[in-house]
Specification:
single chain, 211 residues, alpha+beta, SH3 type barrels, Nucleotide Exchange Factor Grpe, Chain A, domain 2, 3 helices, rod-shaped
Length: 211
């Protein structure tokens, strides 16, 4: 029983009479359905086709039986190409991994920075919260509002967004209930924030059952 096509190695073979040939393909005869080997003369480049069974059979010689075609080595050209493709794939994987590590580091660095800067933003918002109509018209309040607008713009440009709470249904993933009982947000005690869609600080709220 001879080998199936999938078991035949691609590469260089020596014919028992001395010539060297490269197995370049395996195929099936469309008429006879016979498996065949397609191979090329290394010197002349001429292409031959031979039934697989015959290709792998033994030949009678003066010294006795010898393999008709003896496998010598893998094709160096093909081997080099495979090495190149593997190296290219490894390089592309390295680039993707490096890009991911840079992205993760940037997110971590921003998140760490936000833990320090967000309290300042919160304090500025609290400083003008609850002012009466007359106080809200003062120049210093207008100045604080301008700074808050800049703060918000910078945070948004870095992928930071405030968690919406006003009139929203209580969300266990984004909010923390400090007081009340219910499934609707009654008021916001402290703002919550998300970075690139990930909660970095939940919004602290009071809740109630809105009727």
């Amino acid at each position: 029983m001879y080998k199936t096509m999938s078991e035949i190695k691609r590469g260089i073979y020596r014919h028992y009479k001395g010539g060297e040939y490269e197995v370049i393909e395996e195929a099936i005869d469309s008429e006879s359905k016979e498996e065949v080997v397609v191979y090329k003369d290394i010197v002349s480049g001429k292409v031959w086709v031979r039934p697989t069974e015959m290709f792998l059979s033994d030949a009678e010689t003066k010294e006795g039986k010898k393999p008709r075609f003896e496998f010598l080595r893998e094709d160096e050209k093909e081997d080099s190409e495979q090495k190149y493709l593997r190296a290219l794939a490894d390089y592309q994987n390295l680039l993707r991994q490096t890009a991911k590590e840079k992205s993760d580091f940037a997110k971590f660095a921003i998140s760490d920075f936000l833990q320090e800067i967000i309290p300042v933003y919160d304090h500025l918002k609290l400083s003008i919260k609850g002012l009466n109509e007359e106080e809200a018209k003062s120049a210093w309040v207008e100045g604080v509002k301008h700074v808050l607008k800049q703060f918000k713009s910078v945070l948004e440009s870095r992928g930071v967004e405030e968690i919406k709470t006003g009139g929203e249904k209580f969300n266990h993933d984004e909010m923390e209930a400090l007081e009340g009982d219910g499934d609707m947000v009654k008021s916001e005690v402290m703002s919550g924030y998300k970075l690139a869609g990930k909660v970095i600080r939940p919004a602290r709220v009071t809740v109630w059952n809105k009727e």
